[in-house]
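Next up, a specimen:

>
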Amino acid sequence: MHLFSDSDKITSKFIETLTHPITPQNKDNLLVGVDLGTAYIVICVLDESKSPIAGAYQFAQVVKDGLLVDYMGALKIVKQLKKEIEDKIGCELKNAAVAIPPGTTINDTKYIKNVVEGAGFEVINVVDEPTAANAVLGILNGVVVDIGGGTTGLAIIEEGKIVSVADEATGGTQCTLVIAGTYKIPFEEAEYLKQNPEKQEEISGLLRPVAQKIATIIQKHTNKYNIDGIYLVGGTSCLLNIEKVIEKELNIKTFKPQNPHFVTPIGIAMNCVQSRNSVSHGH
C-alpha cells in the first residue's frame, strides 16, 4: 500500500494544470488557495469536487521567517498570478483562503489577508499551514511537519484532530545560507544551486546539520506525545534524504510525499470555505 497515493495523485494533477489548465464547468464554486511562502508565492485553483484545475507560482522573497516584509512586492505578484490564471480559464477568481505559520499573531494574519484582498480576492478563511497540509494528506495519527523557507511548522494529530501546533525559525533560508557560505557565492546563486538536481548528493551532505536541527525541533514539540509517524511537507522537504536523516535522529518512521512543496497550497484551497471564525488555528 502506498501511503500517499491520493495526495501524490492530486499534487501530480496540480503540476499538470500549471501548464494545461482546465476550463471549469461551474465557475461559481471555485476553491482558491493563496500561499505566500518565503521562497514562492503559489495560487492553486480547485473545482467544487476539490480537483485541481489551474495554478501559477513565482519565486519571491516577500516573506521572511513567516512575516511579510515586502507588502508591495507581494501584492504585485499575487495580482499578476491571479490575472494569469483568470486569463487561462476565462473567469474571475473571487474567494480565496490563505494560510499562516502556526502560532502567528493576529497582526501578521492581517498583513497576509490585506495583500490577498488588495489583489482582488475576498479572503473567506485563514488556516495554519500544517492544518492545510493535512487536508490533502488525511493523517489520522502522527505529526505533519511543514518545512518552509523561513520556519518549520508542525501539527500533532490524534484521531484526525489537531491537538497541538508549533512553529520555529529554521528552514530553507538556513539551508541557502549554509550553501552560500560554503561555496562563497551570493544568496540568490545558492538558492538556484540548492535546487540543481545534479548537486543534490553533495548538498544533502552539506545540509545534514540543518536536517538534524529540524529533527530536534520535532522532538522538542512531540516528546509528550506518542507519535507513530512523521509526515514532511513544504519546499525544504524536497531536499534529498531529509526524511532519512530525521528518521535516523528520532527513530520514528518518517514519510515524504512526492512534490511536498505543493501539498500545503492545495490544502489551503481545500479550506476555501466560509469559516465560522476568521482564524482557525486548529485548537
